[in-house]
Design goal:
Elements lengths: L4 E3 L1 H7 L9 E5 L6 E5 L2 E6 L9 H12 L3 H8 L4 H9 L5 H14 L14 E2 L15 E5 L5 E5 L12 E3 L4 E3 L15 H7 L3 H11 L2 H22 L6 H12 L9 H11 L15 E7 L2 E7 L3 H19 L6 H15 L6 H15 L11 H7 L1 H16 L3 E4 L5 E4 L3 H5 L4 H39 L4 H13 L6 H7 L5 H16 L1
């Protein structure tokens, strides 16, 4: 019996002997009339009936891929470097009004910067590149057309604005009559799919949950809580990287966090300024890094385990320019939720790893910065999101590994005895066109956990402290410092003061006073 045959992306990758980061969906065509599906580790593999077989033509498999596997920019960019442009042009010309042919035509020129020998379309409706029901898409931008340059290159230039029936405005590309609603640019263009999980999370009114917190606690308590929250966030962000900072470095990071709501930091000069403010002065950068770096772990004296390899320095400038321009584009996209915006830019930043040191802390700071700038976090409130990441470390690691693990399998590198790494081949497309669905899902979880657990718990602790302090003062009118110490020591010992601590700190109190004060601590912190 014949085996199932790959179709779509899987067919084209196998045919051209190429490896790619696995697409979320892969297609096969069986020898029967049955359809089946296997879902494992977030990947979907579908086997279609024999009648679905698209034949041997590359164009037909590209169409099959867009129709059933979705748009994977990195895989398409890889394939367009080896697929014969003349044959592809003939296939597109044979389907002048075909929806998928027009999309493939646009994507070829968008991803390669090379123009196919085809005449511009002059009639027909404009169609959206990404389907809004399947992807989070751009809703407003300047329309574009292609302008010829020397050789076979082209550039994008603006034409008059164009709207669709729903009132959204896209980059309307005249050549293929395509509404380019991608979220990014050719230099950095992430994809986020509308999964069931994200659709469900989008229904949660995060801003309303924040407002409920603001109104549920006294303003004075919220002001007091800020200093605790800034400290908690700082400790957690450093601890994630297994760093124990001195008080000076902690204070600098706290100062940085207090500025998150006041200005947009996602531009080159300010990112360098941030890096300089949070790292040891000896490791301050004046520009993006000029050497190849990686994230590793020393296993033995002679062995280093590589966890992640960053983009090549020669690719970095373009990638970072693309990241910043994508951020500016998303700022003008009210239809794309703030959490998605923050995830794209913050995770994009840490994946690009533009500095020698401080990338992780800046990545987490950017989450604060974007959520505050987008108005999701009320003024005067801050999210200890790093604490949620630290307390859910497996989920955080998985959000990073969703990209780093499959990427590492594609990178050819050598590590010398000095720990210097050399990367071979062209790797830029893997960082340029990332499917960030997994990272967006993770950040939604962290934000919700931050509100419902970290933030609320911290505020409830302060409420409990205020009640306890008042109750203790009614029993014994002690100095605030002694009350703080009594509460802390009791909480460290399940609501009871140990005999040793009592003798060394509270020998002046009677047994009855101690018992009543211990009961007050247990009662007020349990309620």
């Amino acid at each position: 019996m014949k085996q199932n045959r790959p179709a779509g992306y899987a067919f084209l990758l196998e045919k051209n002997k190429l490896d790619a980061i696995p697409n979320w969906h892969s297609s096969w065509v069986g020898q029967t009339g049955k359809r089946s599906e296997i879902i494992q580790d977030g990947l979907v593999e579908t086997t279609y009936p024999l009648s679905y077989w698209p034949g041997e033509c590359d164009g037909n498999h590209l169409e099959f891929a867009l129709k059933y596997d979705g748009i994977n920019l990195a895989t398409l960019a890889l394939l367009f470097e080896v697929i014969d442009a003349s044959s592809l042009s003939e296939w597109i010309a044979s389907k002048p009004t075909g929806k998928y042919a027009r999309k493939i035509w646009f994507l070829y020129e968008y991803l390669t910067g090379r123009k196919l020998p085809l005449q511009d379309l002059t009639q027909g409706n404009y169609i959206d590149l990404l389907e809004n029901k399947l992807y989070y898409t751009s809703k407003r931008a300047q329309p574009l057309f292609f302008s010829k340059t020397e050789g076979n290159e082209f550039t994008f230039e603006s034409i008059a604005s164009r709207g669709n029936a729903s009132g959204n405005i896209y980059e309307a590309v005249q050549r293929q009559r395509i509404n380019n609603n991608l979220a990014g640019s050719p230099e950095f263009c992430p994809i986020v799919r509308r999964t069931e999980k994200l659709t469900e999370m989008e229904r949660i009114d995060i801003a309303q949950r924040c407002r409920e917190i603001v109104t549920a606690y006294p303003p004075e308590l919220l002001k007091r809580a800020l200093s605790y929250l800034y400290g908690k966030e700082t400790r957690a962000s450093f601890e994630i990287e297994h760093i124990r900072p001195d008080s000076s470095r902690s204070d600098k990071f706290i100062t940085l966090l207090t500025t998150a709501e006041h200005r947009d930091f996602c531009e080159k000069a300010l990112l360098i300024e941030i890096q300089n403010s949070i790292v040891d002065p000896r490791f301050c950068d004046t520009d993006y890094r000029q050497n190849q770096n990686y994230v590793g772990q020393t296993v033995t004296t002679w062995q280093e385990k590589i966890h992640y390899i960053s983009p090549k320095p020669e690719d970095l400038t373009g990638l970072m320019e693309g990241l910043v321009s994508t951020h500016q584009k998303l700022k003008r996209q009210p239809g794309i939720p703030a959490v998605i915006h923050a995830a794209i830019i913050a995770y994009g930043f840490v994946f690009l790893h533009p500095f020698e040191d401080g990338n992780g802390r800046i990545h987490r700071f950017l989450i604060h910065n974007i959520l505050a700038q987008r108005g999701l976090v009320p003024e005067g409130l801050m999210f200890p999101v790093s604490a949620a990441m630290l307390n859910n470390k497996i989920l955080y690691d998985r959000s990073l590994e969703a990209f780093s693990i499959p990427l590492l399998k594609l990178i050819d590198y050598e590590l010398n005895d000095s720990g210097e790494i050399t990367v071979s081949g062209q790797t830029g497309i893997w960082y340029r066109y990332i499917d960030m669905t997994a990272q967006v899902e993770a950040l939604y979880e962290f934000v919700i956990k931050t509100i419902d657990e970290e933030l609320k718990n911290e505020l409830d602790i302060l409420v409990g402290y205020d009640r306890t302090k008042k109750a203790l003062q009614e029993i014994v009118d002690m100095p605030d410092r002694q009350i703080d110490l009594f509460i802390r020591l009791c909480l460290q010992n399940s609501g009871h003061l140990s005999a040793t601590k009592r003798e060394s700190h509270f020998g002046m109190l009677t047994d009855e006073e101690i018992e009543r004060m211990e009961a007050a601590v247990r009662t007020n912190y349990a309620s």
